[in-house]
Amino acid sequence: MPIRDGDGKKHVSADPWTTLFPVCRAPSLCHPQDTMVRRVAIIGAGASGLASIKCCLDEGLEPTCFERSEDIGGLWRFADNADSGRVSVYRSVITNTSKEMSSFSDFPCPEDFPNFLPHGLLLEYFRMYARHFQLLQHIRFKTTVLSVRKRPDFATSGQWEVVTETEGVQESHVFDAVMVCTGHYQVPHLPLASFPGIETHFKGRYLHSQQYKDAEAFRGKRVLVVGIGNTGGDIAVELSHVAAKVFLSARSNTWVYSRVSDHGFPFDMVSTTRFNHFLEWLLPSAITRRIKFRRFNSWFNHEIYGLASVKSSNFHVIINEELPFCMLSGTVVLKPNVKEFTKTSAVFEDGTTEENIDVVLFATGYIFSFPFLEESVRSPLKNNRSLYKCIFPPQLERPTLAIMGLVQLTGSVMAGAEIQARWVTGIFAGAYKLPPASRMMADVLKKQPPVKRNPSEPENLKMSFINYTSDIASCAGVKPSVLWLLLTDPRLAMAVFFGPCTPYQYRLVGRGRWSGARAAILTQWQRALKPLRTRVVEDGASPCSWRWLGLLALPAMLVVGFLLSKSPRPGWVPRGLSLF
């Protein structure tokens, strides 16, 4: 396997060019990694941890996963006890990304599973994955990682000393590399200082959404939910069924989208396609924003509901089918940001006041924290953008520490974490090389979030799912070429370009290629529709309609390829075909 320079410099994330012509690069100046990585410590047995164990095994590495609880699943393993110290989902939570878009790339979700999974079914899928690839034997449960520190000879060996504790007994280990898979839902963010009076005057109860498990404890209460992210919207809707009144405080413009897209299909399978991504890259940003706003407002007018305006510069999106109806029926009342609290009321920035508030529930997110890392490593980690490709701390002498799953994507984080794990373990195994530290630092600085024009607007740190996964796939040499597929397998090419960008696409070529990837892509809609086939009705659609659509799409792809081949884009070298 040839060594590749994994810096991705010419793979501009917003440019779908390399989807059509992946560029193979020679090993130029690279980050030094002459030491052999063999033993890998993995911290956490959630979705990222399981994928990391499996990828280590694929690369011939020796993984040891440390999980502080007694089971796998991480965040997605529901716990009734909110005081257990472990962050977990609430009882009614359902995934925001569909099963096909969230599946592990070589292990499709069962066809009889619903498209959007309750936490119990998602956990069962994790168990199936762990059993199938025999991952459990590599996990040490009820083991807490106390510290991860560089060895004295780290500059040459890249090794880490990991101290763990199991049932009160501490143990020290030496590992060649460490993969941190604790995610970004770790420490609740409770900004009480931003809400005068909440601690000194307010006589009611306040809590963070981490402590919320179900609505029963709030029956008959007047509840104020602060924060209109996915969690805040979900909880407000659920509380509206039992609470006397629910107020939802939002400080920023928010667009609400439904999991159910046109014709009843999962929204992400319809919208997350390489064709749509190509159009978004091709068209001016002002036009694409207008198209998106019009799309959002085609469901309901967000300005009438006080949620968002087309003049807004903010593009914060949440997934919630019920929130508009709750607002329409008055069971949820939208309010602006809270100015202050009195003994029993909340005063808002528009001057209005809501009296007799019993409970304030802060859905204000989480702060990621790595208390086990030594200070010299931990202090530069301000956010995921301070990491190279949102994975590697660029200041380390040896690239043997990877922070997994910390990236926030517009699609499935599980799929993003898996492609991260494939690239990282390939680097550990010596198949790929990172660029020099100076180039990684320059890349990190270039991708820092811009200074906000309006300090009251929250930072939108989410990255495009296709941009990010394609970028990492390019670094790992597993990104498919659509034009090459068009020449060799037109049916598959059309499914890859016009169909949903499912994780199976990154198993078609390169290291870790899976023989079942083609079949998984061509049958993904069958698995999506299977759980809906519980009552068969007469189908009035013409059986030839999809064939005609395919015939029309074929010349469209040729036109796209022609336009790109005539583009004067600088720096392009059409060497991607040599990959195949």
From TrEMBL:
Its main location: endoplasmic reticulum. It is found in: Endoplasmic reticulum membrane. One of its GO terms (cellular component) is endoplasmic reticulum membrane. SUPFAM superfamilies: FAD/NAD(P)-binding domain. GO terms for molecular function: flavin adenine dinucleotide binding; hypotaurine monooxygenase activity; N,N-dimethylaniline monooxygenase activity; NADP binding; trimethylamine monooxygenase activity. Its EC number is 1.-.-.-. It catalyses: hypotaurine + NADH + O2 + H(+) = taurine + NAD(+) + H2O; N,N-dimethylaniline + NADPH + O2 + H(+) = N,N-dimethylaniline N-oxide + NADP(+) + H2O; hypotaurine + NADPH + O2 + H(+) = taurine + NADP(+) + H2O; trimethylamine + NADPH + O2 = trimethylamine N-oxide + NADP(+) + H2O. It is a single-pass membrane protein. It holds the Pfam family FMO-like. It is an enzyme of class 1 (oxidoreductase). Its cofactor is FAD. Keywords: Endoplasmic reticulum, FAD, Flavoprotein, Membrane, Monooxygenase, NADP, Oxidoreductase, Transmembrane, Transmembrane helix. InterPro entries: FAD/NAD-bd_sf, Flavin_mOase, Flavin_mOase-like, Flavin_mOase_1, FMO-like. Belongs to the FMO family. Broad spectrum monooxygenase that catalyzes the oxygenation of a wide variety of nitrogen- and sulfur-containing compounds including xenobiotics. Catalyzes the S-oxygenation of hypotaurine to produce taurine, an organic osmolyte involved in cell volume regulation as well as a variety of cytoprotective and developmental processes. PANTHER family: DIMETHYLANILINE MONOOXYGENASE. This is Flavin-containing monooxygenase. It comes from Anas platyrhynchos platyrhynchos (Northern mallard). The lineage of its organism: Eukaryota, Metazoa, Chordata, Craniata, Vertebrata.
